What does this fold into?
Amino acid sequence: MRILAIETSCDETAVAVVEDGRKIISNIVATQIEEHKLYGGVVPEIASRRHCESIVAVVNEALEAAEMKLCEVDAIAVTYAPGLIGALLVGVNYAKGLALASGKTLIPVHHIKGHIAANYIAHEDLAPPYLCLAASGGHSHIMRVSDYTTFETIGRTLDDAAGEAFDKAARAMGFSYPGGVHIDKAAKNGDPKKYRLPRPKTQNPYDFSFSGLKTNVINLVHNANQKGEEIDIDSLAASFQYTVADILSSRFVQAAEDFGYKTAALAGGVAANSALRGMLTERCEKKGIKLYIPPVSLCGDNAAMIGSQAFFEYQAGNVADGSLNAVATMPL
Ligand code: KG4
Ligand code: ZN
It folds into this structure.
């Protein structure tokens, strides 16, 4: 089954053709980052307008790259939640139009379920049940994945998501949006032990809280600026990154042990972080847990992951009709 998938939940207009949930036929991502960078973050109205302008061209490009015509795809999938509502609406409306005009089945996909499915493309042997850590700009969730479409959240962030904390701390350090990748690069030249940063406690041992840590970094930079003191930005980046990776991986591995999982997966934009990838791999190995991580190219927003999850949603009978709407926030 070949699915044409559309993803417009944030600042990437992305379209892909995916076969049977596991094989990418084409995968096009048109990013708007350069424009949002000017404002230090995503401007929702600009995002919607850019999606509106590029969606037709990106769909055509994905079909051309797949050497297919629309009539040759079997279904249309679209991210319908969660995300920026105006941005989601562009993709949802366009997908509805395509499905109605072509008579194809319409498959709605939850964005975070899509992130997790990036692992099915990268790893043919991965199948539920497993424990998943999804860390992105809007989510930090520990989830029990009992089958391809059944998820149970056992831990989540109580305030900022990991990616959000990366971006805000990066901004204080003087990096441009989105800052996660800049922290990752700078950290390679820094000492992760130089700055001691707080590790907030939570009542539920699998929950996270990143806002205190983020504020600590922002205050550290502001105080130093006011006193005219030098900050070793590379080491601050390394210390921050080490702390976030340590919090995420220690709670995740604890959850895996407590619930008896021997299979685990990492997903979301923050899964691209080199310290998190390394630390989690090492800690899972020590505990005899097999860890699956998507390649960096599939960690950020893309439509291939949506096409993958769509295949499993279709198999479970989760399809939509012309009344499908976009939803800004939606639990898994
Ligand atoms: O999943 P994603 O592409 O979009 C959302 O669904 O939110 O995640 C974007 C987030 C941003 O906060 C970005 O800074 C972060 O992922 N990110 C990283 C890295 N690459 C992207 N954070 C840390 N290290 C990275 N290498
Ligand atoms: Zn995402």
In short: The chain has a mean pLDDT of 97. The pocket of KG4 (ligand 1) is lined by residues 10, 115, 136-138, 163, 166-167, 178-181, 184, 268-270, 272-273, 300-301 (CB under 6 Å).
